[in-house]
Specification:
The protein is α/β, with parallel strands linked by helices. The protein contains 13 helices and seven strands. The structure holds S-adenosylmethionine.
Length: 312
């Protein structure tokens, strides 16, 4: 269960993010994905004594934890519940535009994975929810609605496009057959139907057979790819000259959007290849193994931003 006071999330590539954003006193920073707040706290420490930070998250539990840490950085740290899709509105309300550095550390945190009420894990039983944000909105899409009501064709598209799952057809078919007899309610129920639908000999070694389908459902429920596209473009507009956007992604769909969107920015200096975590970090934190960091730095015609060349 998520602990309101203490995160269990191990933030990835903290040193690399600090090198990319180069927080300094007096600077303005935006962490679009507060999560367990490790990156936020490190940005605040590195921009001591008067750097300012705005941190966003859709998840009220992340916000509550962040607020507990806020007093240590009184007057320097705003913590706001917002989807980063609305990054420009949140930034405008903070009065901190333009920002010298903006971070996106995508996906979900270990706190959220360990919270069965979110329904993100196929290893713990929970409702088929998968919303990263608050539960209040009755009309919001949930994974339960997708698996119980989407057509077979739409399920195939979702599982294939958002999960890159080669057995999308079989899985969708198994879901549709099963729901005719009994609707899906819980994560373990869905995970076992998926596992049974995938041919045994083709099961990929380390991955649970439901991994990709769960990823696809989570992406669809939270409209993650479109939110990312919108947010990156808005982030570029609120970035100061010589400012940098750093994005940590965890799968190829996200990484492709980051790469393409960065490419479309005018006057950007962009990391040519993604920066990967060190083997030491991966050994300590296996979740880091799929992380990729990309950086875009805003250049101006007479402005060279030397401190970032290290990573670009
Ligand atoms: C990988 S965690 C971030 C971890 C964080 N960097 C740290 O230091 O602990 C990702 C966080 O982003 C949040 N998130 C995901 N999508 C979001 C969105 N569209 N808007 C705002 N927050 C989002 C999740 O709720 C989660 O808390």
């Amino acid at each position: 269960m998520t602990n309101i006071n203490k995160t269990i999330h191990n933030a990835v590539m903290v040193r690399e993010v600090l090198t990319a954003l180069h927080p300094h006193p007096g600077g303005h920073y935006l962490d679009a994905t507060l999560g367990g707040a490790t990156h936020s706290v490190e940005i605040l420490k590195a921009s001591n004594p008067d750097g300012k930070l705005l941190s966003l998250d859709v998840d009220p539990s992340a916000l509550a934890r962040g607020k507990n840490l806020q007093k240590e950085f009184a007057g320097r740290w705003m913590v706001t519940e917002s989807n980063f899709r609305h990054i420009r509105d949140a930034a405008t309300a903070s009065k901190l535009i333009p920002f010298d550095g903006i971070l996106f550390d995508l996906g979900f945190s270990s706190d959220q994975l360990a919270d069965p009420s979110k329904g993100l894990s196929f290893q713990e039983d929970g409702p088929l929810d998968m919303r990263l944000g608050p539960k209040g909105n009755e009309d919001a899409l949930t994974a339960e609605e997708i698996v119980n009501s989407w057509s077979k064709g739409d399920l195939i598209k979702c599982i294939k496009n958002f999960g890159e799952e080669r057995f999308a057809f079989r899985i969708a078919e198994a879901i549709v057959t099963r729901r005719k007899k009994q609707k899906f309610k819980t994560t373990l129920d869905l995970a076992s139907v998926i596992a049974e639908s995938v041919p045994r000999q083709h099961k990929p070694g380390a991955l649970h057979p439901a991994t990709k389908t769960f990823q696809a459902l989570r992406i669809a429920v939270n409209d993650e790819l479109e939110s990312l596209r919108v947010a990156l473009n808005e982030a570029w507009d609120i970035l100061a000259p010589c400012g940098a956007i750093a994005v940590i992604s965890f799968h190829s769909l996200e990484d492709r959007i980051v790469k393409q969107t960065f490419k479309s920015f005018k006057d950007a200096e962009v990391s040519k290849k993604p920066i990967l975590p060190s083997q030491t970090e991966i050994n300590k934190n296996p979740r880091a193994r799929s992380a990729k960091l990309r950086i875009a730095c805003k250049q101006t015609s007479n402005n060279i931003c030397p401190e970032r060349t290290l990573l670009l």
